[in-house]
Amino acid sequence: MSDIVLEAVENLGVEFEIVPCDPELADTAQFCEAYGYSPDESANTILVVGKSNPRAYVACVVLASTRLDVNGTVKKKLGIRRTSFASAEETLEITGQAIGGVTTFGLPDDLPIWVDEQVIRRERIILGGGSRDRKIYASPAILEALPNVEVVEGLAKDFEPLA
């Protein structure tokens, strides 16, 4: 685990467990299948960019069993007309973390973190660990312990069934 992420997690004073994983299996669907976690307990951290000048960024945490409402709730809350998912390159530049390992811990102090309320209602969640070779398993209280976190109702929506 990168020193920044590990230090940030340890400083929260919330019990957590490090779950090692094969970097080739770090993406959510493969990780859940390979290691027996449910998408309902897997919480993804997704960097969103508001296409304004200057650009606005927010890290959003949603369950893998839902989809981030980037063109609804996120856009409205940012107050910006155009939003999108940050590219892998942009995510690495802003967070210092690669897709498949992005986590809320060790992010820049001025980066807001919005957490969907469904994440907070879980008993335990598995989050990225700051790199593709580990995850963090803990109570959602670990997110609420972060200073720049806001729990947002309706940040994520259930997947629509295919017709």
CATH class: Alpha Beta
Number of strands: 10
Distance from N terminus to C terminus (CA atoms, Å) equals: 42 Å
Q: Under the CATH scheme, which architecture would be assigned?
A: Alpha-Beta Complex
The largest pleated sheet is described as:
5 strands, mixed
Proportion of beta-strand residues = 25-35%
User: What's the oligomerization state?
Assistant: single chain
**From N to C, what is the helix and strand string?**
HEHEEEHEHEHEEHEE
Mean pLDDT: 93
Placed side by side, the strands forming the largest sheet appear as: 5-2-3-6-9
Topology:
Blueprint: H1 3-11, E1 16-20, H2 28-35, E2 43-50, E3 56-63, E4 66-68, H3 70-78, E5 83-85, H4 88-95, E6 113-116, H5 117-120, E7 125-128, E8 134-138, H6 141-144, E9 149-152, E10 156-158
Parallel strand pairs: 3-6, 6-9
Antiparallel strand pairs: 1-8, 2-3, 2-5, 4-10, 7-8
Features:
single chain; 163 residues; alpha+beta; YbaK protein; 5-stranded mixed β-sheet; 3-stranded antiparallel β-sheet; 6 helices; 29% strand
In short:
By secondary structure, the chain is an alpha+beta fold. It is 26% helix and 29% strand.
Task: Describe what this molecule looks like in 3D.
It is a single chain. The chain is α+β, with helices and mostly antiparallel strands and 163 residues long. Helix content is 26%, strand content 29%. The protein has 6 helices and 10 strands, in the order H-E-H-E-E-E-H-E-H-E-H-E-E-H-E-E. It has helices at 3-11, 28-35, 70-78, 88-95, 117-120, 141-144; strands at 16-20, 43-50, 56-63, 66-68, 83-85, 113-116, 125-128, 134-138, 149-152, 156-158. Strands 5-2-3-6-9 form a 5-stranded mixed β-sheet. A 3-stranded antiparallel β-sheet has the order 1-8-7, with no helix packed on it. The termini are far apart. The model has no long low-confidence stretch (mean pLDDT 93).
